[in-house]
Structure of Peptidyl-prolyl cis-trans isomerase:
Amino acid sequence: MTIAARGKVVTINYTIKDSQGQLLDTNDGQGPVSYVQGANKLLAGLERALEGKKAGDAITVKLSPDEAFGQRVDNLIRTLRLQDLEVGDEPLEPGEIITLGEEDGAWIVVAIEEDTVYLDGNDPWAGKTLHISAQVLGVRDATPAEAKSGEVME
């Protein structure tokens, strides 16, 4: 039986919840997810938990913010005047993701009050402890192209 090890393609189903049990993400109903073990495409703590597992195994791992998406950073909260943003023809909505320029990356619109826009540049999961459960569905050898690129080609 093949086990998850560097250079293997591992196929999983997963569920991610926060410390309050709120569902953050799952692939349930979307089909399984495959990745190349050791290619650093998953959170490191999740990949470590899956190392050595085989089809049929299940894991549960708790990742602190520092092991996941980091702590929230206060200087990634910005307040801008609406007129200073190039937003196009559509009005901005809370929850929308916008870019402020190539170097500033993506920002989430938190709120809009009159002509003021409140933005957050933190990852939405920053500061959260993640509780991840995963079921290993299959493990196979990566093709040479998959091993080289770290991307599953199927």
